[in-house]
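thought: fold this chain, then report.
action: predict
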Amino acid sequence: MRADLWRIPLAGALAAACLGGPAPSTTPDVPGDPDSAILRFERLNGLVPAWQPLVWYPLVSVYADGRIIEHVPAAYPGPALPELTVVRVDGDGLAQILELAAELGLEGPDRELGQSIPDGGVMIFTVVRGDERHQTRVLGPDPDPGRTPLLHALVEFGDALADPASWLGDDITADEKPYAWRRMRLVVVPVNPADLPDPRLVTMRDWAGDPLATLGDGVDEAHGARCALVEGAELARLRSEFDTADELTVWLSDEQTYQLHPRPLLPDETACPSI
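observation:
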């Protein structure tokens, strides 16, 4: 690990002290499938409708072939289609990422840190090594970095994952570019435009496809939400539609208004997982 490029003030010895044992040794032991996610960093809100996690993105996903795919949050109201970027690192870069994850205990037993607060949200690190999946959940709103050295390091690690050029510059083999996704999860939710956060910003569009009331499968009965996989020719059509829409656009289908949440799929994701 190159200390001059790493911003976390946490050496292996301090990590071991925080975790109550020595940091495990780490080598780039990754699956053969290039589309396997080996590390994921997420921030999720609390107290939301059951369908909403289906449209959220991990902030950063690291894949076995060295791709790092990042979701770039947009100013509200953001475009309908999210901004996703991808950069690629070599084996040394992957080894550094996994070494730091190991020092922080992210390859150890599943655990929860912090204090649960209603609607406080959670920060999640998921590491996959072979057949084992390890998850660390940091509870609360934005964890106070001054609370413990470990929480400080986890916050800094999440920030660093979202900015690989700041510490893995010599290991980057392909510069950042838009991620070229090929499949999309479409979540459909009936809505009254007047109930949206700022109805003054709402635009109305006619839906030209199959009736939204029966599209895909139901995923949240309480809110009437449905989810469908979109690919091929229909994906090309909808991409052009969504390119000129934003997250407050409302769609009219058979005299009912809906919000559509297009969710391009990452390499390892399935269309509509059960919730």
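thought: worth noting. The radius of gyration is 20 Å.
final: tokens above.
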